Amino acid sequence: MAVDPRSNSVPNGARSVLRGNPDATARLPPPGEPFRLAEAPGEVRRVFRQFRAHGVLDVVENPRDEPKRYRTNPAAFEAAREIRASRDTLPCGHGGLRNRRDEDGYTCGYGGCDARFDRRTVLDCIG
Ligand SMILES: [Zn+2]
Q1: How far apart are the CA of 9 and the centre of ligand 1, in A?
Q2: Span from the CA of 5 to the centroid of ligand 1 (angstroms)
Q3: 47 and 108 share one domain
Q4: pLDDT (0 to 100) of residue 99
Q5: Is residue 3 within 8 Å of residue 32, measured between CB atoms?
Q6: Which of 60, 86, 87, 121 makes an SS bond possible with 117, Cβ 3.0 to 4.6 Å?
Q7: pLDDT at position 113, please?
Q8: CB within 5 A of ion ligand 1: which residues?
Q9: Per the confidence metrics, is the pTM higher than 0.85?
Q10: How far away, in angstroms, is 95 Cα from ligand 1 center?
């Protein structure tokens, strides 16, 4: 993979944690829109600790009597956008879906990849 100079500042491990959580990656709020944990999309809340641990999310405000506010790390957001845009396919980088109506979602159809997406993510990616 070519080294993109913009990628150099992506926090260690952020890229793989983003790739491993395509639903949350697709939902990351832009860096200019700080949020409280309670306001974050469910997909992001589910992997919040992992995203924090890998520098995908930064603390921007830590008021004494209120919940902290976070924002998406700009370099990580850029990486997330690259991951989403890659080859006009799914966030995991593959094309092809298996419909899983029973779970109201979709599974990547690529052999060996069991990434799952909700309907909105699929529409965001594939249109
Ligand atoms: Zn896949």
Answers
A1: 26
A2: 26
A3: no
A4: 60
A5: no
A6: 121
A7: 83
A8: 92, 94, 108, 110, 113, 115
A9: no
A10: 7
